[in-house]
Structure formats: structure tokens, C-alpha cells
Specification:
Layout: E1 2-6, H1 11-22, E2 26-31, E3 47-49, H2 55-64, E4 69-72, H3 79-84, H4 86-104, E5 113-119, H5 142-161, E6 164-170, E7 172-174, H6 189-198, E8 204-206, E9 218-219, E10 221-223, H7 224-239, E11 246-251, E12 257-258, H8 259-270, E13 277-279, E14 288-289, H9 294-300, H10 308-320
Parallel strand pairs: 1-2, 1-4, 2-3, 4-5, 5-6, 6-11, 7-10, 8-13, 9-14
Antiparallel strand pairs: 9-12
Length: 322
């Protein structure tokens, strides 16, 4: 098997590439390096710099590298950015996916398997204790909409062309398998708290009057190395499944952690003692979003192995090594 991993020089993508390579799978990275870092790509793994909107280049890469499976992680992923630039997000995420699927289903292509990077944002504000894959999807941002519509397109292409397909709905990804693979962005809770603490400022909590035990939002945090291992398990399952197989799977731990508790843990792990300040709620933040991970355990035998403290400690090591 040879897997084309789009976005493979990004934060999650680089972890997937490493995990696939360590599992004995051949990988080819395709990344426009708009947010990816070329040095994250392991030695010996080919890196092709290009856009998923470039169908001609994609068809050439698929043919030249004899690609038989795709893990599609490339795309724009900031909720706020998608609200500000919905046309841009739909163009990059939806048209990019369409162009990629068109390339991998061309008559000369040998691609038989397709794994799509989706998101828990497809669920919107679910009013349930645990979010299952059957929970109604009501995305609240153009980003979430592109992920849900992307799942539909991948599923339809799989049925029409005999691909095995999977959509993996990530919850809150954190941590790093090694410092050089750490998240370089400051868009998620853990690096946002790091940034405030290292600047000598108080971390911010957006709202403390939610209907949760301590009043702050509750989320399901998953170590990025666990996410990468879930991709390996998914890829192997698709490779041994009949054409037309389609999987939709949550990637989470099934355990909720409040924003206040996470901020306290980050202070503890990093050696700081800076209490957070509470600021007004952000529009659209649900009180609780925690995954049910039962389906992926049943279907693939995968479960998350790393806890929240390990996520924070590994992320902090990467932050300090920047």
C-alpha cells in the first residue's frame, strides 16, 4: 500500500505520516506548506508541494507514486476564519475535496481507499451527555458545514466508484508525539493558555455560567498521537474491507474536562500559578461536547491510550522547544 497524505506537513498530518511509516505503510506527503512545515516530513518520505486545487498535479502524483489510498487532512480549519471568509473556506475545503476525488477516481487511478479528516464541529451544539455518530449534525459555522458536506461527498464518491471510505470526526486535539511535531498555531485552548502564561498574563475563560459542574465549558481532549494511531487502524480496516465500505467514527476519549480544570492542570504542569480571568461567553460555544468512542472500539479495536496530563506535558515540551 502507498498512502497519499494531503496536509502531511501539518500538525496532525505529520503525526499521521510518522505513525503510518512506523506501521510499515508507505507514505507520500502532499502539502502546499501554507501552514505545514517541510521539516516535519520524515527522511525518506517524498514531499510534493502543491495545492489540492491542482487536479493535474494530483493526477500525476497519484500515477507516479502508484498511490492506492488517500488520507485527506489538507484544508482550512479555523471556525472564526470561516465565519469571516465563508466563500474562501468553501472553495478551499469543498472544491479542493472535489478536485482531489476527481483525481483519485480517474480511470487510470489505482486508489481504492479514502480517509477523510472530519470534525466534531459537524454536531454543532448537541444537548446530550455523550455524542454518538448518530447524534444529529447541525454545524454552526461554515467550517463545520464544509466538514459535513465533505463527508457526504466522500460517501457518494465511494459508492459511485467502489472506494472504501471513512470519515473521522476529531474532538479536541492536543499534545505532541515529540517536540518538533508540536502545534505551532495559537488557536486552541492549550497553546492559548501557554501564550498567556509565558507572557506573564492571566489565561482567559470565556464564560463561567454554563450548566456544568464548575460553570465552564466541558470538552473531550484527545492526544494527537492517539489520533494518528486511529488513522493507522482505519487505513488497515479499509484495506481489508470490500469496495463500497463506509465508516463514520468519532475520535475522542469519551471523558469530559472543563476549561477551568484544564487551565488548572496547565498551570500545574508548566510550573505557573496564575489564576484565569473570566470574560464574556463566545457566541456559539456549547456547554458540553464529549464523544462516545464506543463505535471505533467495536469496529477497529482502537482506544485512546494517553491521558490529559500527558497531552499538556508533551505540548509544553514542544512549546518550549520552539
Amino acid at each position: 500500500m502507498t498512502w497519499l497524505i494531503t496536509g502531511g506537513a501539518g500538525y496532525i498530518g505529520a503525526h499521521v505520516v510518522r505513525a503510518m511509516s512506523e506501521a510499515g505503510e508507505r507514505a507520500v506527503v502532499y502539502d502546499d506548506l501554507s501552514t505545514g512545515v517541510a521539516d516535519r516530513v520524515p527522511e525518506g518520505v517524498p514531499l510534493v508541494v502543491g495545492s489540492v486545487l491542482d487536479g493535474e498535479l494530483l493526477r500525476r502524483v497519484v500515477a507516479e507514486h502508484a498511490v492506492t489510498g488517500v488520507v485527506h487532512l489538507a484544508g482550512k480549519k479555523q471556525v472564526a476564519g470561516s465565519v469571516e471568509r465563508p466563500l474562501h473556506y468553501y472553495h478551499e475545503n469543498m472544491e479542493g475535496l472535489r478536485v482531489l476525488l476527481d483525481a483519485v477516481t480517474a480511470p487510470a487511478s489505482a486508489v481504492a481507499h479514502f480517509v477523510f479528516s472530519s470534525s466534531a464541529s459537524v454536531y454543532g451544539m448537541p444537548d446530550v451527555d455523550l455524542v454518538t455518530e448518530e447524534t444529529p449534525c447541525l454545524p454552526m459555522s461554515p467550517y463545520g458545514e464544509t466538514k459535513l458536506a465533505g463527508e457526504w461527498l466522500v460517501r457518494a464518491a465511494g459508492r459511485a466508484h467502489g472506494l472504501t471510505t471513512a470519515s473521522l470526526r476529531y474532538f479536541n486535539v492536543a499534545g505532541a508525539a515529540s517536540p518538533e511535531l508540536a502545534d505551532t498555531g495559537v488557536f486552541n485552548l492549550v497553546p492559548m493558555v501557554f501564550e498567556k502564561l509565558t507572557a506573564g498574563e492571566a489565561p482567559r475563560i470565556f464564560g463561567a455560567d454554563y450548566a456544568t459542574p464548575d460553570g465552564t465549558c466541558v470538552r473531550d481532549y484527545i492526544h494527537v498521537a492517539d489520533v494518528a494511531e486511529a488513522h493507522v487502524a482505519t487505513a488497515r480496516a479499509l484495506a481489508s474491507s470490500p469496495p463500497g465500505t463506509d465508516l463514520t467514527l468519532n475520535i475522542g476519549r469519551g471523558e469530559g474536562v472543563s476549561v477551568r480544570a484544564m487551565t488548572t492542570l496547565i498551570n500545574e504542569v508548566t510550573g505557573h500559578d496564575t489564576p484565569p480571568v473570566v470574560t464574556p461567553r463566545r457566541p456559539g460555544d456549547p456547554a458540553r461536547v464529549v464523544a462516545s468512542a464506543e463505535r471505533i472500539t467495536k469496529e477497529l479495536g482502537w482506544t485512546a491510550r494517553r491521558d490529559v496530563r500527558e497531552m499538556v506535558a508533551s505540548a509544553w515540551a514542544g512549546w518550549q522547544a520552539r
